[in-house]
Amino acid sequence: MSVNSLIFNSVASDDLAFYTDCHLVDSRDPVDMTELTKFEGFPIQSIVSNSRSQFIRPKLILKSGTKAELMKRVPSNDGHYGHAITNNVWKHVVYNSCHAQGRDSLHGVHYAPRSINHRGPSHDGYYGDAPVTGTSHALGNASNHRVRYIPTSDINFFESNTKSNNSCHSVVQTGSGLSCISDHDVYAIEPVISPHYDRLNDYRTQIHTRPVRKSYRRTLARAPLPPKPCTTLPRVFGSNVRSLTKTKHAELLQMSVDYDIMMITESWLKPHKRSAFNIPNFTLHCVDRSNKRAGGVCMYVRSSMAVSVVKEFTSDSMSALWIAVHNPQKPATIYGTIYHPPNLTRATCDKTIDHMISTISELASKYPNANTVIYGDFNDLNTNPITEMTNLSQIVWFPTRQNNTLDLVFTDIPELVNSPKRTCLSAPNVGNSDHSSITLSSQVKPKPKYVTVRKRIITEKAKIAITKSLYHQSWEQVTEEPDPDRKAIRFQEIMTSVIDQHCPVKSTRAPLDKAPITTPLITKLRRAKIKAYKRSCPSWKYFGGHLKVEIHKFQQKQADNNINNVTAGSKRWWNNVRSVTGETKASKYVNYVNLDDRWLDPQAFCSQLNEYYLSIAGDITIEFPEIPAMENPAITVDELDVYKILKNINTNKATHTDDYPSWVTKNNADLLSEPITNIITSILNTGRFPIIWKRAQIKPLPKTTNPKTSKDYRPISLLYHLSKIVELFIKKELSKFTPSDPHQYAYTQGTGTTNALVQLMSTASKALDDQCTYGVQCLFIDFSKAFDLMKPDTLARKLLDMDVPVPLVRLVINFLSHRTQCVKFQDSQSGVKPSRIGVPQGTILGPALWNVYVSDLCRHDPVVKYADDTTIYDIVPKTSVVTTEKSGRNRQITIVNNTMQSAADSAVGWCDATNQKINAAKTQYMLLTLQLNTTVSPPITIKGEEITQTKSAKLLGVIIDEHLSFSTHTQSIIEKTRSAVHGLLTLKRHSVQPTSLVKFYQARIVPILTYAAPAWYCYIPQYCKEQLERHQSLCLRLIFPTISSYTERLETSKVPRLNDVLENLCTKYVAKVVSDSSHRLYHHVPPKQSIHRHSARLSDKPILKSRTALLSKSLFHAFA
User: Fold this and answer.
1) 225 contacts 417 by C-beta, under 8 angstroms
2) Within 13 Å, how many C-alpha atoms sit on residue 876's CB side?
3) Cα separation, 616 vs 789, whole angstroms
4) DSSP code for 404
5) DSSP, res 366
6) CA distances from 579 to 388, 557, 573, 586, 977 (A)
7) Whether 258 contacts 235, CB under 8 Å
8) Among candidates 283, 299, 295, 301, which has minimal Cα distance to 243?
């Protein structure tokens, strides 16, 4: 059949046909196109492609009446041109059959000689079936495109007659009448450059222009890797910053909008400096070199990404940080940041290689099918073994420090390996670092992410309108209701309708990646620096220096506007200071959360966490006691008391999302006090707490830095703010009938942690002064889920035993019964389910009920209680101690008839009766004694588990050691202030005035150094007091560097000596106890007969009688 006949028969039945064997130029059997146009209704349109080569030009024929549009002729990377035809029907099919490069370039079908035979895998792993790829381009002896078969619902492939030359004659048909006739198989073309051709030519070009490292030269010639499942490539930035200073941090802050992961080497960070280098919407992971100043690595990872730290390693040879980015629908991606110092021995270098290879192998078995990206500064390390023994390729093809390639990237992601010149690019250095940065990104820029935020539009005009509406509001439908439930519901409905009328809730879209606060000049300089760097223009260094100066000016201007010109100590001042020092914890939106070794979306996270909280109760039977029916006098509530409480509402506290804003109640307390008083009175007299106010919305707060299990989240209940006001009145009525526990120091007016610690320390020092006492043994008991395991029926029995009025008992039972809860995280919320036991954490009544619940715990044993922290202590006489073993200074003793074991058994029995659990793993035992290295045998046991004896234990924030020297505590509080001291230095670099710096020191550092000082300061040795004073001198020297004398710095700052402050606190505390004979610690005040007569005559400060130096240094002997 002739070509003309073939074309005629084809176009007679089809609307569109592609022809590849139409010889138009230099052809033996040309097609007479003019003759073809004689067929009625068939206009011809030519497509010219590949004008440079001698290949045959294809033709495209359109049937008359077909609506077609010629697209723009856009050249592709290989220089070919082409037209494409689109309409509503064929756009999808023609696009899949064309060569597309970039976003706006479409090319037609091309023909290649049959001698080309490149069978390469495509992105999705499909291989070509024919020995000849007739629709691919040709370049040299290798195809620059891969064969890919696209199975779509619109295209059906079937075989036709086979020609003698063994090339398959296939026809592609579509449901819309499109057919392509060729003597070759028809495939869709992917715009992927051949890795063989590009990498070899890059290698030939670069080897003549600059020296290439051996590992780099070998890597470029590697064959393409087999395809692996690949996730969407995040935008990655890597740089050796050579110390992360505040200026470099500000530059990273500007770049944070453009990247998802920032991998930093030579960070030079320390643990106490991390808070000052946080970036909003990013999580900072660090590995610091503790033994040296330089080195260290860190990674900034976008908070919305599901990330877990899989390995941290640091040594003299390297610093390494490995993280895994998870996605439940796709394999994980491993990211590693490595720093290898230069000029190390061969044995030390081998340790780095061994660590990398073993870690890659370990993570490959732990995360199968995971991709890997490793960035690092390897200096002079020979990295050939890494690429030879793993499936990773090195893709950095440009110098990163002068003419050397020191910063490398190893990966097995096909996007990066096959197209390194497109995805691995050089970027300007950060600050004054001499290392060029590296960026890794896919060709497609991700869409900006937004979050929907629902909030009320509040204006002063709206507040006035709300007040006017409430002024004219009638409350009869609330006050005339006899049922407290109906009263509360009607009140909530009225308030919500009034507020929604004037302050409606509106949904707005807010970007998750907010651009940092900057100036137009800084933005322009940064863009100019990047643009000049890409063009290899030397002016990029000028723009970088100018950018550094402008950032410093901007920081100084911010300090003047937000700190120096704001009243020191005000709320706005503190917010700005926390923002500069990095102490502000911004809310993080995450896509997935790691919970119990599973990555869950927020909705599943809420549901699973709620199920865990409800499962704590287990299968517990609740049997309420019989409550006698007794009539009690009606309880009245003064409206003036309600008004005062409403006026003092803290509007900064979070409430239930279904509740109306608390500021409305506070601003209109005079208008709302009448209906609220009516509701409270009805609740107290009927003993029924409104069901609508029993709804709790749990906000999980992490107990640790990296929570991984459900136990690591503390459930904090968000309640209706009016329910807390009702709880205040219930607590007030309850306090009239419940006696205070003399051993409980929490949730009681006039007591605190200092009183509890002073009670224990004074008792121990007085006992150890007795020559008949060997020591004081202490058992620090830790309860698990104390508030969550409270049984309401057990609490009701305790209240009845205390002769609490029956209506009040019924009200407490009703308050704890029929409660519901749900977990809310970000914009997701679990289902509402009933909770059977426990007291919600966040209520006002909960702590008072807990004090009643534990009032009979260790009633007959010496004990110190603070909330759920219980410390049982016992004095050990020398007559009950038997030394069983002695070796040098170490001795092992046995306490005969040890009463501590019986006290522990009594606590276990109390827990069994009240549904409480003791965490034996966190419970500690310590023997306070003047002897050295004493071990008690046999150890104390709780339900068969041995309690470990320790030499120091932390109680209520103070570290107590076995000799009561508190030297460990002194070192601990100095170390604890290092982060705040670095914040002080950060404020100094931001040009904050000295007066504000002194205010920051007194408000952030001094409280840490003076916390609970009466309990420990009098016991510390002289060298610890000197350490504390030197620490204050260091802080003042940072504020006033030009003043050399410590005394002059004290006079200039008007700050007293730290030891004077500590002694003044102890003196005031003792004076307060001595002046009040009803104080629960008054019995520790020594009698007047214990004063030495000679010391009273010869010294202004009398010396009290004591046998040991420990008692003479105790609080009441030293300061009374």
Assistant:
1) yes
2) 26
3) 7
4) B
5) H
6) 48, 15, 10, 10, 18
7) yes
8) 295
Output the CA–CA distances (angstroms, integers) from residue 700 to 703, 718, 841, 847, in the order listed: 9, 10, 11, 19
- Residue among 227, 216, 613 nearest 420 (CA): 216
**HSE-up (13 A, CA, CB side) for residue 279:** 30
Q: Please tell me the distance from the alpha carbon of residue 354 to that of residue 347, in angstroms, as a whole number.
A: 11
Burial class (CB in 10 A: 0-12, 13-18, 19+), 772: exposed
Q: What pTM, to 2 d.p., does this model score?
A: 0.71
The alpha-helical segments, DSSP class H, found in 227-336 are 246-255
- Parallel/antiparallel/unpaired status of strands 505-511 and 593-595: unpaired
Q: Look at residue 46 and give its three-state secondary structure.
A: strand
| Separation in Å, CA 153 to CA 86, 130, 156, 182 | 19, 22, 8, 21
Read off the pLDDT of residues 279-329 as tens digits, 9 standing for 90 and up: 888 888 998 876 666 788 999 998 888 888 888 888 877 889 999 988 777
Q: Compute the distance between CA of residue 409 and CA of residue 939 in angstroms, rounded to an integer.
A: 55
Three-state secondary structure call for residue 299? strand
* For residue 20, pLDDT beyond 60: no
Largest CA distance in the chain: 136
* 790 has pLDDT over 60: yes
* pLDDT at residue number 448: 58
- Rounded (5°) CA angle 634-637-640: 160
* Amino acid sitting at position 932: L
Q: Rounded to 10 degrees, what is the CA torsion of 610, 613, 618, 619? A: -50
The tokens 């070009």 sit on which residue?
A: 205
Query: What pLDDT does 256 receive?
Result: 82
Q: Are strands 69-70 and 924-929 parallel, antiparallel or unpaired?
A: unpaired
The string of pLDDT tens digits covering residues 639-649 is 999 999 999 99
811's tokens? 């009200």
Question: What distance in Å separates the CA atoms of residue 868 and residue 859, rounded to the nearest whole number?
Answer: 15
* Contact by Cβ (8 Å): 49, 108: yes
Q: Which segments of 127-190 does DSSP mark as H helices, in order?
A: none
CA–CA distance from 1005 to each of 637, 912, 978, 1024, 1030 (Å)? 45, 44, 9, 17, 14
Task: Tell me what the mean pLDDT of segment 524-551 comes to.
Answer: 84
Query: Residues 843-855: pLDDT tens digits?
Result: 899 999 999 999 9
ω before 805 within 30° of 0 (cis)? no
Which has the closest alpha carbon to 68: 108, 121, 31?
A: 108
Separation CA 584–CA 602 (nearest Å): 23
Interhelix angle 845-853/792-801, nearest 10 degrees: 70
Task: List all residues 6 or more positions away from 733 whose beta carbon is below 8 Å from its beta carbon.
Answer: 635, 684, 808
Q: Strand 69-70 and strand 330-339: pairing?
A: unpaired
Strand partners, 1022: none
Please state, rounded to an integer, the average pLDDT across all residues of the chain. Answer: 76
Give the span between the Cα atoms of 1066 and 1068, in whole angstroms: 6
Give the SS3 label for residue 546: helix
**Res 434: pLDDT:** 86
Give CA–CA dist 802/976, Å, rounded.
44
Tokens 């200039």 belong to residue: 1052
Gyration radius from the chain CA atoms? 39
**In the structure encoding, which two tokens stand for residue 1042, read together?**
């030009």
Mean pLDDT (whole number) for 410-418: 82
938 vs 1044: CA distance, rounded Å = 58
Query: How long, in residues, is the chain?
Result: 1120
The span from the CA of 347 to the CA of 1099, in Å, is 69
Q: What is the mean pLDDT of residues 58-87?
A: 37
In this structure, how many other beta carbons lie within 10 angstroms of the beta carbon of residue 921? 11
6 alpha carbon, distance to own chain's centre: 68
Residue partners of 210: CB distance under 8 A and separation at least 6: 399, 403
Question: Does residue 1073 surpass a pLDDT of 50?
Answer: yes
Handedness of CA 989, 994, 998, 999 (dihedral sign): negative
